[in-house]
Structures are given as C-alpha cells and as structure tokens.
Write a structure and sequence with these properties.
- The complex is a heterodimer of chains A (278) and B (281).
- Helix content of chain A is 77%, strand content 1%.
- Chain A has helices at residues 5-38, 44-48, 61-91, 97-111, 114-128, 135-160, 163-171, 176-205, 208-213, 231-240, 245-277, and strands at 51-52, 57-58.
- Chain A is globular.
- A two-stranded antiparallel ribbon of chain B has the order 1-2.
- Chain B starts with a helix and ends with a helix.
- Classes of the chains: A mainly alpha (278), B mainly alpha (281).
C-alpha cells in the first residue's frame, strides 16, 4: 500500500515539530526549576560572605573568587597558544602533513573526556610539577581543555577575513607580520573573542577536571598556589552530600545566570561579526 | 632587520603550533606511565574482562564498568539521536526565522549548562519518576541514559544542522521542481547527502556521552555489578574514576589511571572514526 506523500509529510512534520518542542520544554523545565528555587537564596550576603560550616551557612564568595581565578589562568595561558596555532595553520603554512597532524590532535583534544584531563592534570601539575591542588594546577588543566576550542574558533575567524585584506597589505609593501597584526587580526578579533568567551563558559561549568586539580578547599584563596573550590564543584558537593539544598540551589542559579550572560554576550558578538561580514 | 623579524615570527608561530600539538602526546604519555604498570601486572585480559573490582583486596577487573559505560551510552544514543536529528531538520528546514532565532541560542544554552546541574535535576525528577512508576531503585541505566540523551543533544544538533545547511541549494530546488514534497526532498535527498556529517555528529555525541562523569555519578547508583535490566544501577568507567580518585592511593590509584587508559583509547578511536567519516566526503 502506498501512502500519499502529503500524508507522510504531515506525519514527519508533526514528529519534527514535537521533537523541537520537547527539547525546548526540557530546557525550560531545567532552567525555570533551578532559577525558581535558587534566585530567592541569592542576596548580597550570599555573594560576599565566605562559606561557613562546610557550606551549610554563609555565602560562596571564596568559590566565586576561585572560579574567576581558575578561569583567568586558563584563558590567559590558552589564548596566546590557541591564536598562535590558528595563525600558523592559516597564514604560515600550506595544507601539509604537519597541518593535518596539528588539526587531528586539536580535534582529538576536543573529544577527550574532562575526567581524563583531570587525571592528567592531577599526575602532571599536582604531583609531577609539585604545584599541589591549586588555582594554578586547575587553571593550567583547564587551559589545555579549552585550547582546541580557541584554536578552532580562531582558525574559522581568520579564514573568514577576505583575502583582499592580505593582498592590499602586501601591495602596499607591508610585511607579512604587519599585514597579519594590522589587517587580518583586527578583523578576525570578534570571532576570536567569541571562542574565548565560549571557553570561559566551559571553565565556569567544569567540575570533573577541576575537582581533581584545584581541590575542594573552602578557604579564600590567597595565592596562585592556594587550593580552591570552584562554584560548580561547590554545587556538586553541596548537592551530592546533601549538605545544604538551599545553598546548592543558590549556587546553581548563579551558575546558570552566569552562563546565560556569557551566551548573550556571545550572541551579540556573533551578530555583529555576521553583519560586519556582509 | 625587517626580514629577520619575519623569520622570527614564523618560527615563533611554528613553535606555538608544535607545543599545542605536543600537549596531546604529553597527556598520552603521563596517563600511560601511571596506568600501564598495573595493567601489565594484572594482565590485559584480567583487567579488561575481570568481573571483580575490590581495590583493597588487589582485585582489579573493570568489565562491569565497561558494560555500564556501553549500556548507558547506547541508551543515550537510542533516546537522543532521533530527537537531535529531528531538531536539526527542524532548524535547517522547517523553523520559521523567528523561532530559529530563539531555538539556536537555546540549544547553545543547553550546551553551556554545567553537567552537575543536569545530574542534580535528574536526581530530583528523573530518578523518583522511574522509582515510582517503573520500579527499582530509580538510580539506574535508564536515568543515566535520559540525562545523557539530553546532554548530547546540542553536540548532535549543531553539527548535523551545519551538515544540512552546507548542502548546495540546487539540490532542493531541483527536487522541488520535480514535484517532490518538502519531506520527500529531505528524506530522499538532503539526509543522504548530509550523511557523513550527521554520522560524525552522532559519533561525537556518543563520545561525549561515554566521557561524561559528574552528571551520571549522581543518577547511576554506581554499583559494581553486571546489570540485569535497564532499571538496575551501574557504574561506568568515568564514574569509577570520579568516585574513587578522591581517596585512592598506590595500586588502587594506578588502577584508576588504567581505567582512564581504557576510556582514552575508546574515545580516541571514536574521534578518529568521526574525523575519517567527515574527511571521506
């Protein structure tokens, strides 16, 4: 029996629309639930006090600072390497065996599970380089983890810069270095920034790799060698060990708000980048 | 002077690129150095197919965890892949522009939410629902599969959407001109043409599901046993590391790195397949 193509189309359309609707519902269910439970907890004290009594009372200021510092180390270390690699791949070499190997390893790095990064960071930074559980160990581990994201987004951004820019640069007698720094880099910047912001989001959200390398100390960090507990780790410990549901919701809400803000900035950048490209 | 600066910049960029490349090698070397001794001591077969995991008694068999990882990942793929592909078709073909502009950032947001939040949500909603309506402890393969299915959606949706959008528009125009319906065009032309991209998306999604740790620790129950049904608790390779790494030492710690080696090898294979599939096109 042959079914009328119009009927099949209707059924297919129905399924596709319901799948999309389902995904939106799930997303909204998660976000609204966490925000509804968590936002009432958020107040000035929660943001500015250090955790007391294992996090049962007090705020999460030391976790906020810890998260910021781990993220800062990661971004500061990974950005020059990521952008440099992207420039090498796009401007300084033709497609060759070496570029293929570099690209393969970058893509493979992107697929490695965060817990494996955690194992590596633990054995390499914490033990072998003797940095202990610290902001530095956590930040450097995260730097490696976000490196592929920065390489890929920067590479894409550099490739979208019209070839004309380079030709004009060269024809004016500029060297390659001048052309890259003064013409290509500025116009690729929004795309590169895009990758960096995406990476910040990953650092803020990461748990498995950070808990093994930065530790889970609640003290306010005083140096790069202090251990710390990032917000995601703090939330995990509060929720899993049932220490304080209320503070867990508060921390989760703050995390989601942060991710939300990061995404908004990201989209603004993308839109500007796209409209500029036209 | 100008020329030497040129040369220097070229070497500096090459050096940077090489160091990015060497990171993968350093990771591999350190994980293997730490984990291999215990595998050679116990024996590869005994380690991979051993049924008994009792680190305090020197028993290191990870077969139940392998079964755990495979079953949860498979469950996530069965639940997540069809929904994700439908969503990518929705985005590429059916969604009105305004809806697309809402949907796409929403998927991005879904990708950005910390995995622990998914796990927590699973504990609050999925686990009790399974316990009350389907039986068992609730902490189960099914709970883990549902959470992972949600978590791999963004990966699969975005990569498949790109694969669908990168097809030449003539394909669609020609099909429509021949009188095919929109769905016939998608089903018989666009999906097959975008196959390699979609397959790569699915493999990468599976890799993500297999590598996820914190979310599944919270919903899987973590018992080291071969599951009898999807309502049984299991432990995966990742959760084995995540749970025990905090207090393990000596051979126990080595065995966790060895668990990491198995995971690493499987994921690298999946990555290589995904990259191969994409390139073949």
């Amino acid at each position: 029996m042959r079914v009328n193509p119009r009927t099949t189309q209707k059924i297919a359309k129905l399924l596709i629309w319901s799948a999309a609707l389902l995904v939106m519902t799930i997303l909204l269910a998660i976000i609204i639930y966490i925000l509804a439970k968590g936002i009432p907890v958020l107040n000035w004290q929660f943001l500015t006090q250090i955790p007391r009594n294992m996090g049962r009372s007090g705020g999460i200021s030391s976790s906020i600072i810890g998260t910021l510092l781990v993220t800062a180390v990661a971004v500061i270390v990974a950005t020059p390497f990521g952008i440099g690699t992207a420039f090498y791949l796009t401007e300084y070499t033709r497609e060759s065996r070496i570029t293929r190997i570099i690209r393969f390893s970058a893509e493979s790095l992107a697929g490695i599970p965060s817990i494996v990064y955690g194992l590596f960071g633990f054995i390499f930074f914490v033990i072998y380089l003797n940095m202990g559980w610290s902001i530095l160990s956590g930040g450097l581990t995260m730097a490696i983890m976000i490196l592929p994201t920065i390489i890929r987004t920067s590479e894409e951004a550099i490739r979208t810069v019209p070839h004309l820019y380079r030709e004009v640069g060269f024809s004016l007698g500029a060297t390659k270095w001048q052309t890259i720094t003064r013409a290509v880099f500025p116009s690729a910047l929004p795309g590169i920034a895009n990758g960096i912001i995406l990476s910040i989001g990953r650092c803020v959200a990461e748990t498995a790799a950070v808990i093994l390398t930065a530790g889970s100390a609640l003290r306010m960090p005083i140096s790069p060698f202090s251990p710390t507990r990032t917000m995601a780790v703090h939330f995990y410990i509060l929720a899993r060990e049932g220490i304080s549901m209320e503070n867990a919701y508060g921390t989760a809400a703050l995390l989601i708000i942060l991710i939300f803000l990061i995404n908004i900035v990201l989209n603004m950048l993308v839109n500007r980048f796209v409209s500029k490209g036209r | 002077m100008k020329i030497s600066k040129e040369k220097i910049s070229k070497y500096v960029f090459f050096g940077i690129a090489l160091s990015s490349l060497s990171v993968l090698a350093v990771i591999t070397i350190f994980i293997f150095i730490k984990g291999l001794p215990i595998i050679t001591k116990v024996g590869v077969i005994n380690f991979v197919f051993g049924m008994n995991w009792a680190p305090s008694k020197g028993a290191f068999g990870i077969f139940p965890m392998i079964i755990g990882s495979v079953s949860v990942t498979l469950g996530a793929a069965i639940l997540g892949v069809p929904i994700a592909i439908c969503c990518s078709i929705f985005l590429a073909e059916f969604a009105p522009p305004t809806l697309r502009n809402i949907f796409r950032p929403a998927i991005q947001l879904l990708a950005g939410i910390p995995s622990v939040v998914y796990g927590f949500w699973g504990v609050l909603f999925i686990v009790p629902t399974i316990r009350n309506y389907l039986g068992g402890p609730g902490l189960s393969i099914l709970a883990g599969s549902i959470i992972l299915a949600i978590m791999i959606l963004p990966t699969i949706i975005s990569i498949s959407e790109v694969a669908l959008l990168s097809l030449p528009s003539q394909y669609k125009e020609a099909a429509m001109a021949l009188g095919l319906t929109h769905w016939q065009t998608i089903h018989s032309l666009l999906l097959p043409a975008a196959k390699s991209g979609i397959v790569a998306a699915i493999i990468l999604g599976i890799g993500r599901a297999m590598g996820e740790t914190m979310a599944v620790i919270m919903v899987l129950g973590n018992a080291v046993a071969i599951p009898q049904s999807i309502l049984d608790p299991v432990r995966t390779l990742t959760t084995n590391i995540g749970i025990e790494m905090g207090y393990a030492s000596g051979e126990h710690q080595q065995a966790l790195f060895a668990t990491g080696i198995v995971l690493f090898v499987v994921i690298m294979l999946l990555n290589a397949i995904a990259q191969y599939v994409t390139r073949k096109k």
